[in-house]
Write a structure and sequence with these properties.
single chain; 104 residues; alpha+beta; three-stranded antiparallel beta sheet; 3 strands
Length: 104
């Protein structure tokens, strides 16, 4: 394995780490029947959205004092994370193979 391949693998590992630490969230409001769900975007894994932020994203307004904030929570969109990680792995593998030493 040459130096360029090692650099590509290290970059791929760095991208995988970033993808694992900066994750997408859905805001969910639980109610009878069907739950309300809205995409909230990406956030740092250790700073999850608050119930007030979830309420604001789902209903597009600030919560009133009588709002049911205890019904709001955020969920990580794991499907998107798996797609990101698979794409990073595929690109890293292809770049590593493309930079292989040519035998003459």
């Amino acid at each position: 394995m040459n130096k360029k391949q090692q650099a590509v693998i290290w970059m791929g590992m760095a991208f995988l780490t970033c993808a694992a630490l900066y994750v997408p969230y859905d805001g969910v409001y639980v109610r009878e029947g069907d739950n309300l769900r809205n995409y909230m975007g990406y956030r740092f894994f250790f700073q999850q959205p608050t119930q007030t932020e979830v309420y604001h994203v789902v209903f597009n307004r600030s919560p009133q004092p009588e709002s049911y904030l205890n019904r709001c929570h955020a969920e990580i969109v794991t499907e998107r994370i798996w797609v990101e990680m698979a794409a990073i792995g595929l690109v890293t593998s292809a770049a590593t193979a493309a930079l292989a030493s040519k035998k003459t």
